[in-house]
Amino acid sequence: EVDARADIYAVGALAYFLVAGSPPFDGDTAMEVMTHHVRDQPEPLSVRSRRTAPAALEALVHACLAKEPADRPATMGELRAALTALPIERWSEAAAATWWRERAGAVAGRGQGAPAERSPATVAVDLGRRQGAASALEPTQLQHTGVR
User: Fold this and answer.
1) Dihedrals φ, ψ of 72, to 5°?
2) Is the entire prediction scored with pTM above 0.70?
3) Does residue 61 contact residue 15 with C-beta atoms inside 8 Å?
């Protein structure tokens, strides 16, 4: 059964990317990347990242990426509470704006010149076709659709 923990997995994948600077899984095709997401454990952030992440943050990101939904935080509220409890420095809006202002050019140009074979795989979704299928569902069913 699919529930909100699919979104928690997605948040974990995004957090992994933000900390490591690369997605949890690479592959030559979208199918290869998806297969890694289904079967494999991501490389520990402490190995993949050029930056040091607090051990508690790494453990939480990997918990979000657990293959079994029952092993992930159960709700976004639970995830937020776990994030808030982490012993890490909080950023103010001003600090975030300063960081972005100082690094925006480097971040925006990061992917330029990358060889095509190293570009991340993507998946195209026909949203028009899916919209027709979703409109046939009851509103309570819509909140439970998605990936495991």
Assistant:
1) -90, 165
2) no
3) yes
